[in-house]
């Protein structure tokens, strides 16, 4: 495989700096990468995992891929505000000259201040670790170079509000040589012989602070204020170029303002402008002017940004509660969350809601669930999504699909409350699905349904983790000020603070969204302040705080102590210390915890063990705050029962069968009604069972009104019997049947008397039962043998289902084994690509002189061992046409019946099906 020219990766050769170093300064990004050690390359691949898909064949390929637009945008989105400001300053910094300042010296002017100077080396190291900057030494040396794609993204138009350099602006305007000489004369400069030297003389003037100040001191009234209006951007304005006012004319005559298109050259005739416009020159609107970058920097005092932000904004405290109060409130809400999920799924196991044709829960079913839980519909959607994320509910897959609990729900019910809560909290932290957009419309105008498609938001896990980590960095019991919390999150990921693309439109192809481009504003009028958009990360942070309170992760707005293990073992709000030889990008944000453990690049087994340990620590921390389940309730004379705390599951289930929940909170209030008592009798309980149960589980004597209610309902229960005729009705009480037959409300049932104790109906038995109960009777269904049929509904379960897979907005972080193997393969490929090629032959041949042949088990074991040791292997391979060949490979990964390896024979990384490999043999070097 031949090497691709590295100039397309490194943006062209850089001027070599003289020095005594034995190793010359790198001239391209590929050469810079080639000079890095394996730890630095592994840190780069971990910080930018998209570079690994597929594994680059050599370092030149890696540099090329690192310079693609999509990859650079993704890398820029991972920068904090000051590191991004550093990259933006690099994009507008003047190139180093023989006698001019170095790039680092220019950065010190563009990013002034002691704090900026202190943190600038770290920002440059971060940019170099992500291969956004290259150069000689740490942070790119004295003249770090921004990769070309990043310079194009950040330089034109520049987020700093700076316009193009004077040379570019003059080239765009296509000013004639005569016009340039006029400008030189107006600026007090001697005439030159060519346009290049004229532009160079003007640039030298604009970058000389003393001469520039003297020039502006002689400006007519109103000229400098016009420049000030464009000083911080946008750098374009509209003026009457043909008949400018005196201040505008003075600025145009000295190139302090430059026409943004060829139509602005006042030295040309109208016909010449028209001819040139027809030929395709220039795209700017007539009358548009631009403020050259050098002029704007002089007005700004050399600063690239109005206010550099090297220090992250602090999260302010809104209120401080005692930590014990916070934990108690959060623990109470955690128990309420368990009860809410159990109540919802307990209802769905007998009355499963149907799945919409397009997927998701219908509006009426969501409204019904909200009424059942006595919560707003948005909260009902959250509880449904939480159960779905935890794998407790799913579609049953039947012809008439419905949502029902999964077998995992039964395992969850059998677990202790702290463990059940930890499972829900872990699922919530890792889920990319969010309930907040339910009810909104997507870009196609379709309403988003709970449990339906379109609810995945890739940044959600990261925003949840960062939000809660910021809460963990506050003193225990502190409730944060939300405005300052949002500002801190924006500082950490400024380029990800885009509008919600699912809500207000699609995200641009390059991954960025800076909002609508401002229209060119005339320099005579101040630019209108644009209303700050509601960003996706802001919405995710808002939902995180609301949902954390519902789930019991926070109490009274402060993080609960028992939730901290889920966030990781590192100091809250601090970066984990980097291991020796590890670049800053690899150490940034390395938090543990259940949610982060599966994303931190270590071996999978180690990640899963750490996640399980985090869940166990959280459950153990919550356990002392959870009261023991109660075995008794308080029965009251007003036909209510009060449960002052969580009940044992059997007691809760029985009480829920014979009474209705009236209110929830710290204590649950149940109300006994004739309908609820009849429900228990329909389920097969007798009056004696109900009396015995209440007597055995009440701290107070059973009130007489409740005893009378049970006896009265039981006496009337089953006196009427319903069977199939379509249906029949029988009763030993002739008077009762006669009264029913005469009741006008029974007319729709079309009753007729078959015998003094038997009535027949055209209605089905279930409809007959329902109608009689509506009329105030208490009928019981019976079988063909005359036995009472229990009214217990069938309990539905789905087949075993896996929880929904998260849909992240970035590739998964590679583990350590893959990073090591990938770096080894890239090094081997680069070695093969950069050294003179020799005829390739196996270093050794098998004893029989043919292809190596081993059984599949030995082949697989040898391959897996070679991925760990880096041992090259000699293999026999049969392609799809049946042609056999010999190959020398260095295995990188064995997975899913395929081996990914660097093929020394072909000088590239390839993937081979294991079933086509005849055998393997180790290579012995001569």
From TrEMBL:
Residues 572-597 have a biased composition (Low complexity). Pfam families: Helicase_C_3, WYL. InterPro entries: WYL_dom (IPR026881), XPB/Ssl2_N (IPR032830). Residues 517-526 have a biased composition (Pro residues). Residues 633-754 form the Helicase XPB/Ssl2 N-terminal domain. Residues 263-278, 479-513, 793-808 have a biased composition (Basic and acidic residues). It comes from the Bacteria. Residues 1-28, 259-287, 471-530, 571-615, 783-814, 831-850 are annotated as: Disordered. This is Uncharacterized protein. Residues 859-920 form the WYL domain.
């Amino acid at each position: 495989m031949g090497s691709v020219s590295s100039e397309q990766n490194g943006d062209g050769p850089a001027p070599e700096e003289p020095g005594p170093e034995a190793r010359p300064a790198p001239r391209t990004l590929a050469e810079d990468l080639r000079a890095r050690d394996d730890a630095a390359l592994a840190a780069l691949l971990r910080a930018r995992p998209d570079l690994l898909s597929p594994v680059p064949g050599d370092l030149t390929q890696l540099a090329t891929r690192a310079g693609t637009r999509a990859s650079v945008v993704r890398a820029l989105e991972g920068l904090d505000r000051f590191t991004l400001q550093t990259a933006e300053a690099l994009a507008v910094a003047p190139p180093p000259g023989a006698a001019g300042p170095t790039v680092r010296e220019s950065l010190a002017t563009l990013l002034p201040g002691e704090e900026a100077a202190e943190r600038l080396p770290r920002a440059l190291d971060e940019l170099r670790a992500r291969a956004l900057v290259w150069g000689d030494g740490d942070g790119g040396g004295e003249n770090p170079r921004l990769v070309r794609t990043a310079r194009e993204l950040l330089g034109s138009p520049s987020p700093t509000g700076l316009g193009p350099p004077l040379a570019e602006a003059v080239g765009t305007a296509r000013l004639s040589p005569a016009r340039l000489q006029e400008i030189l004369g107006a600026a007090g400069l001697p005439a030159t012989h060519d346009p290049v030297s004229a532009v160079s003389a003007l640039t030298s003037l604009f970058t000389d602070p003393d001469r520039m100040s003297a020039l502006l001191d002689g400006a007519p009234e109103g000229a400098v204020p016009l420049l000030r209006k464009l000083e911080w951007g946008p750098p374009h304005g509209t003026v009457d170029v043909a008949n400018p006012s005196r201040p505008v004319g003075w600025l145009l005559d000295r190139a302090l303002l430059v026409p943004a298109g060829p139509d602005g050259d006042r030295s040309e005739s109208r016909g010449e402008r028209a001819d040139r416009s027809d030929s395709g020159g220039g795209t700017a609107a007539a009358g548009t002017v631009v403020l050259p970058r050098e002029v704007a920097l002089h007005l700004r005092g050399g600063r690239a940004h109005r206010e550099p932000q090297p220090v992250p904004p602090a999260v302010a405290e809104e209120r401080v509660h005692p930590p014990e109060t916070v934990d108690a409130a959060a623990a109470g809400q955690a128990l309420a969350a368990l009860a809410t999920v159990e109540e919802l799924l307990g209802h769905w196991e007998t009355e499963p809601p149907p799945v919409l044709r397009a997927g998701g829960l219908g509006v009426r079913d969501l409204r019904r669930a909200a009424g059942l839980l006595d919560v707003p519909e948005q909260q009902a959607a959250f509880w449904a999504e939480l159960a779905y994320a935890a794998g407790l509910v799913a579609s049953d897959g039947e012809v008439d699909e419905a949502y029902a609990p999964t077998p995992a729900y039964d395992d969850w019910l059998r677990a202790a409350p702290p463990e059940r809560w930890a499972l829900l909290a872990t699922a919530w932290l890792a889920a990319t699905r969010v309930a907040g957009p339910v009810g909104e419309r997507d870009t196609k105008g379709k309403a988003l349904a709970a449990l339906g498609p379109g609810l995945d938001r890739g940044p959600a896990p990261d925003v949840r983790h960062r939000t809660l980590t910021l809460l963990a960095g506050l003193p225990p019991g502190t409730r944060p000020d939300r405005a300052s919390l949002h500002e801190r999150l924006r500082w950490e990921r400024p380029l990800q603070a885009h509008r919600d693309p699912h809500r207000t439109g699609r995200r641009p192809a390059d991954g960025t969204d800076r909002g609508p481009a401002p229209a060119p504003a005339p320099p005579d009028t101040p630019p209108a302040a644009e209303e700050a958009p509601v960003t996706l990360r802001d919405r995710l942070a808002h939902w995180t705080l609301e949902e954390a309170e519902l789930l019991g992760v926070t109490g009274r707005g402060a993080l609960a102590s028992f939730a901290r293990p889920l966030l990781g073992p590192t100091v809250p709000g601090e970066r984990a210390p980097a291991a020796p030889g590890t670049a800053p990008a690899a150490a940034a944000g390395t938090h543990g915890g259940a949610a982060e453990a599966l994303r931190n690049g270590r071996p999978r087994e180690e990640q899963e063990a750490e996640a399980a340990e985090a869940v166990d620590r959280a459950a153990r921390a919550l356990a002392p705050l959870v009261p023991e389940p109660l075995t008794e309730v308080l029965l009251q004379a007003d036909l209510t029962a009060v449960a002052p705390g969580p009940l044992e599951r059997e007691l809760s289930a029985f009480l829920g069968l014979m009474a209705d929940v009236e209110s929830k909170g710290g204590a649950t209030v149940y109300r006994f009604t004739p309908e609820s008592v009849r429900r228990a009798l329909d389920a097969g309980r007798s009056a004696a069972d109900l009396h015995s149960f209440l007597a055995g589980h009440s701290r107070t004597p059973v009130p007489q009104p409740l005893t009378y209610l049970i006896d009265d309902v039981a006496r009337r229960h089953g006196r009427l019997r319903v069977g199939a005729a379509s249906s029949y009705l029988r009763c030993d009480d002739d008077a009762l049947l006669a009264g029913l037959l005469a009741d006008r409300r029974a007319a729709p049932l079309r009753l007729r008397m078959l015998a003094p104790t038997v009535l027949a109906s055209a209605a089905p038995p279930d409809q007959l039962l329902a109608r009689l109960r509506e009329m105030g009777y208490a009928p019981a269904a019976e079988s063909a043998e005359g036995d009472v049929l229990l009214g217990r509904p069938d309990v539905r379960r789905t087949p075993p289902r896996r929880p929904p897979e998260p849909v992240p907005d970035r590739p998964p972080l590679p583990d350590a084994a893959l990073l090591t193997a990938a770096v080894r393969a890239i090094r081997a490929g680069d070695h093969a690509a950069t050294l003179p090629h020799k005829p390739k032959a196996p270093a050794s041949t098998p004893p029989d002189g043919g292809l190596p042949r081993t059984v599949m088990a030995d082949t697989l074991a040898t391959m897996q061992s070679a991925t760990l040791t880096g041992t090259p292997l000699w293999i026999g391979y049969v392609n799809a046409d049946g042609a056999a060949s010999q190959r020398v490979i260095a295995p990188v990964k064995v997975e899913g019946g395929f081996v990914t390896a660097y093929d020394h024979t072909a000088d590239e990384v390839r993937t081979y099906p294991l079933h086509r490999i005849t055998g393997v043999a180790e290579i012995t070097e001569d």
